[in-house]
């Protein structure tokens, strides 16, 4: 190569460097050509993680080499379709807004296994409790007896709790105490209701009619696991288990609930009812309500929940609010569930989230088939709702619309429960004509 040729080649490299250097600098600084809008724009980012990790990532239908957790840092500002997929799992995608020089987060996206539910417990029960502390109770007809069993699906344990004669055709209901240490077995017959309280640890049995012969109604204190209230002609009494002796609470109240060391009562008045907090023996009125048939429901510390069984109306309150305006009407509810201080409830068609700290309500979705049950995923980022034939999961993140995922189909679907590791969903159902306790694997 002659000297002249070397000079020409050097000049060409120098010119190419001078021409390309600004483009390299701009690209490195995050600038991109916006072919649709024209001109240069600084890129935005998407940071995505998933549960489980290692999901394949696509943006706008184009696969990326990264797997979750991943950062995509070359996106033109605007809306982009993020897709995550993993073999054996249902696909997930959501439209997310991306802004220049900012990061859009898609944290801990829940991916669900694409598997059919299994039936580890094959039964056709007369009655089934709602799940509590990872266990179910159910009653079977067996050889002239009605046997009540307890099943803990995560532990793979099943044990008999009680046996009684099946001569009666009375309907049964099963209700756990707040900590699931006691089970109330209600027998509803033409002659009235009989309630038996059974301890799950030692099998100790208490007949409420023996302890309180004049009682006409009874219910668990949703905030005190060892307290069972009874109501009769002489007012409300409390049974502090395991002591069955009823202790007087109020002669005029029609409902009661514990609040720390205090009590909140619904007291009948001439023109309605008053909700009264009895704190340190200094009662104050939280508010007044129209005539109704009220019951207290479980609620987190510092909050209360009250429902009128006649109308289905829910009311929440602060048991320490002495100003007399602490009752907040939430609306009609057929199903409800707390997660921390967030209350999920439904009137049958609207799924609503109430934030107690902010006192705000948000309608998450509206459906055409009646909602029977609601529950929370342990993460708190997703809720479950049960219609006549479908159990669905709904993300709370509303960017690009809340994603609904059908998890299971069947009939007679009960209240679902997900184990603490969020690996499996359990519920009683009938699938393919076969009733029983079903386990739907969510993740491995």
Strand and helix layout:
Elements: H1 3-28, E1 31-33, E2 40-42, E3 44-51, E4 56-59, E5 62-67, E6 70-75, E7 78-85, E8 92-98, E9 103-110, E10 118-121, E11 127-128, E12 136-142, E13 145-152, E14 157-165, E15 171-176, E16 182-189, E17 192-199, E18 205-207, H2 208-211, E19 217-220, E20 227-232, E21 235-240, E22 246-250, E23 253-259, E24 262-269, E25 272-279, E26 282-289, E27 294-297, E28 304-308, E29 313-317, E30 328-332, E31 335-339, E32 342-346, E33 350-355, E34 360-366, E35 373-376, E36 382-386, E37 390-395, E38 404-409, E39 417-418, E40 424-431, E41 434-441
Parallel strand pairs: 3-9
Antiparallel strand pairs: 1-2, 3-6, 4-5, 4-7, 7-8, 10-41, 11-12, 12-13, 13-14, 15-16, 16-17, 17-18, 19-20, 20-21, 21-22, 23-24, 24-25, 25-26, 27-28, 28-29, 29-30, 31-32, 32-33, 33-34, 35-36, 36-37, 37-38, 39-40, 40-41
């Amino acid at each position: 190569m002659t000297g002249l040729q070397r000079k020409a080649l050097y000049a060409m490299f120098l010119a190419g460097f001078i021409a390309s250097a600004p483009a390299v600098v701009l690209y490195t600084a995050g600038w991109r050509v916006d072919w649709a809008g024209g001109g240069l724009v600084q890129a935005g980012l998407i940071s995505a993680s998933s549960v489980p990790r290692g999901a394949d990532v696509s943006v706008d239908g184009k696969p990326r080499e990264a797997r979750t957790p991943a950062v995509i840092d070359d996106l033109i500002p605007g809306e982009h379709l993020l897709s995550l997929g993993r073999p054996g799992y249902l696909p997930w995608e959501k439209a997310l807004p991306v802004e220049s020089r900012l990061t859009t987060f898609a944290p801990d996206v829940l991916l669900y296994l694409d598997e059919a539910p299994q039936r580890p417990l094959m039964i056709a029960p007369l009655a089934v409790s709602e799940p509590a502390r990872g266990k179910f109770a159910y009653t079977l007809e067996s050889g002239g007896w009605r046997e009540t069993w307890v099943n803990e699906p995560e532990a793979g344990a099943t044990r008999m709790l009680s046996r009684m004669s099946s001569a009666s055709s009375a309907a049964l209901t099963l209700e756990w105490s707040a900590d699931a240490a006691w089970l109330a077995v209600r027998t509803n017959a033409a002659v009235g209701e009989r309630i038996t309280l059974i301890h799950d640890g030692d099998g100790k049995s208490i007949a409420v009619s023996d302890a309180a012969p004049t009682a006409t109604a009874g219910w668990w204190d949703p905030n005190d696991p060892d307290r069972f209230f009874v109501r009769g002609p002489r007012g409300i009494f409390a049974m502090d288990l395991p002591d069955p002796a009823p202790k007087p609470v109020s002669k005029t109240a029609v409902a009661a609930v514990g609040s720390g060391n205090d009590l909140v009562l619904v007291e009948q008045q001439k023109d309605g009812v008053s909700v009264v907090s009895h704190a340190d023996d200094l009662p104050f009125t939280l508010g007044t309500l129209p005539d109704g048939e009220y019951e207290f429901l479980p609620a987190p510390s510092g909050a209360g929940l009250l429902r009128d069984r006649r109308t289905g109306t829910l009311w929440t309150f602060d048991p320490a609010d002495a100003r007399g305006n602490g009752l907040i009407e939430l609306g009609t509810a057929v199903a409800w569930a707390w997660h921390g201080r967030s209350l999920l409830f439904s009137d049958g068609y609207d799924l609503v989230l109430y934030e107690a700290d902010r006192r705000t309500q948000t309608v998450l979705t509206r459906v055409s088939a009646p909602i029977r049950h609601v529950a929370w995923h342990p993460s708190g980022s997703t809720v479950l709702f049960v219609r006549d034939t479908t159990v669905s999961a709904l993300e709370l993140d509303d960017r690009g619309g809340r994603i609904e995922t059908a998890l299971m189909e069947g009939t007679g679907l009960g209240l679902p429960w997900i184990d603490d590791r969020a690996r499996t969903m359990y519920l009683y159902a009938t699938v393919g004509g076969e009733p029983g306790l079903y386990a739907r694997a969510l993740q491995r």
